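As the next step, I needed to go through one protein, both as residues and as discrete backbone shape codes, included below for the reader:
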Amino acid sequence: KIPVFNANIVLLNVSNLPFRLQKLKEMFISKFGSVPKFYVRAPGRVNLIGEHIDYCGYAVLPMAIEQDILIAVEPVKTQVVQLANTNSLYLDFSTSVNNIQINKTKPQWHNYFLCGLKGIQEHFGLNNPTGMNCLLDGTIPPSSGLSSSSALVCCAGLVTLRANGKTLSKVELAEICTKSERYIGTEGGGMDQSISFLAEEGTAKLIEFSPLRATDVRLPSGAAFVIANSCVEMNKAATSHYNIRVMECRLATKLLSKSKGLDWKKMLRLHDVQTKLGVSLEEMLTIVEEVLHPEPYSTEEICKCLGISLEELRSQILSQNTQDVPTFKLYQRAKHVYSEAARVLEFKKICNEAPANAIQLLGELMNQSYISCREMYECSCPELDRLVDICLQFGAIGSRLTGAGWGGCTVSMVPTDKLNTFLKNVKKAYYQTNVQRLALENNSLFATKPGRGALVFVEA
């Protein structure tokens, strides 16, 4: 195994801890009466383009952001994990490390920590895992589409790995944390966990799957990427919106596979269909037009197409929280996925070739992505629509929702010479016209640069 953080362990001078770590250390001592032995940081992320396609097997293009989850840790001899949060809204929690119970019906903050903990325990088959005292501090706005929950899962996975003296490569750790987040019921694809571990300062990443790999994507120097929070919270694990889309893509995969004489029972992702047929993304869009109809499919029609019973559909294909969904939109979801996958590759190509009009071309791709998310994937909301319109009105070349949608954030590409005017006008038009948004204004609109991936801090 390649030790995961030999090159990512930051040694800190005891007398010169950075302010945030020093403050966390003091709160830890006050809380637990002892000193933390190490600290772990995992960043949030913004996805520039490639929405809802990672779980379909397609490449995405995110970058890590400055906002993060930071945990101070002390391994202890008792087999108990004690979790506390610097934010008093999040209650303390403790449990035996030998009896991890993750409540899918109430996705509270500690359950995401337990996902990362359980993932590492099960990977190594730890029969006698180390207990821990942990104090968490987070700067990622919750349920904002910037991956606060996945950053917490990743942070917890790395905390557990180090506390138990184990090593993994970054890729292995990302894959384990992707699988372990599913303990809470989210059928995610792996983008969030991958960028959290594989990110490097100064570059976005093209993240590809099966096998997992990350390629540098240098963004144009004449533009800034600005994140704007709609202030509408959306928790993927708390609703079925997200998992319904995952199932719609899975069902589209099955019907497309069967129509082409493939072994549809083994096919899970839309990418698998393209690979098996050996055709281009453009050709897949044509096949979608030929095979699927725009009208929603009832469960009865899906069963008839596949030659299975309703019981088989529910037990063998659908997830637990989509069992009672009466209709599914397969045509629209497949159209979005294949067209979005093509936009990601085009985005990377433009970044690599850097033509004179690169910013304009990238902006057009972001706008096309947003329209597809809104119209074909139906994962926007009125507030996101309004925010995108405002961003484009005040100088963004491209603007789109980022993350799962149904709330959360937009990401906009803004020429650097227009940035200050853009920020001022968007604040005035979106945040200062609404009391609730005004209260959140300071942490809701900011320009961002590609940041570093997960780190371990140890006092020298």
Remarks:
- The radius of gyration is 22 Å.
